[in-house]
């Protein structure tokens, strides 16, 4: 109603000005013979104006409702908003904008698919020379420089995997398979893959898992998640420290707890570590952080229905908890 009154305020003002002018004009020239004629004139003109405004209001009511309370979904703008010429023009404008929007979305989706294909192709192309280098390493294991080359190859592979998983995260629903996974097997698999990194950094992995814990998740994606968290724990720990991995049950959940004795995360950074490209104070100090690893970890857990929690204290260490709801 406010929009309607605002639109026709000028019309109402002109009407009343014209009404007063005619009333005074006809009264001065003797046009009204009695008080009854004056009231009749007032009634007729007011009735005509009121009827016209009521007609216009109800004809454009849908349009005013949409303008006053915009819909939450863009498809809702495509509904019928009235028969008035202005309403029809506005409806056509919404349809044109929706068509342009859909065109932009399709172009974006096409570019995303092209980017994904490129990233997958590029990563697999990069893995070929890495495999060749690994064969050369095996043939020259006695050389003193081989250890350093192997460490750098491991770093390259880790970064390539991060790039590959980041490229696939937007198409996550097409690239995951929920199955029954033994967390004990998963954790030991990750720890064994990282044994050279533990040895190089002189960090002891303390695994406290006495039995199997079965959960519903995707093995490949969760392997990346746990791998990324442990890699971070190693990266930000000094020599002769330990990284402990524990699995336990609490209430209706199975929890993977990864605790390090590293530099910890400042309170100003702890709420933002899962944001994309956010490196924080530690990333600037250590200089190797891309800010994407924990973002992918957070997104994967969210999309698989798991929770991830973080506790940290500067110079004392960090605790990551990945929480899996028990399936029934």
Automatic annotation (TrEMBL):
- Its name, as the record gives it, is histidine kinase
Please tell me the species this chain comes from. Answer: Tepidibacter hydrothermalis
Q: Which domain of life is it from?
A: Bacteria
State where it is primarily located. membrane
Q: Where are the transmembrane segments?
A: 7-26, 38-55
What Pfam families does the database record attribute to this sequence? HATPase_c (PF02518)
Q: Where is the Histidine kinase domain?
A: 121-328
| Reaction catalysis annotation | ATP + protein L-histidine = ADP + protein N-phospho-L-histidine
Q: What is its EC number?
A: 2.7.13.3
Which InterPro entries does the annotation name? BphY/WalK/GraS-like, HATPase_C_sf, HATPase_dom, His_kinase_dom, HisK_dim/P_dom, HisK_dim/P_sf, Sig_transdc_His_kin-like_C
| Cell compartments where the protein resides | Cell membrane
Kindly list the GO molecular function terms attached to this UniProt entry: ATP binding
The cross-references to CDD domains, in alphabetical order and at most eight, read:
HisKA (cd00082)
Query: What is the top EC class of this enzyme, as a single word?
Result: transferase
Keywords, A to Z, come to: ATP-binding, Cell membrane, Kinase, Membrane, Nucleotide-binding, Phosphoprotein, Transferase, Transmembrane, Transmembrane helix, Two-component regulatory system
**How would you describe this protein's topology in the membrane?**
Multi-pass membrane protein
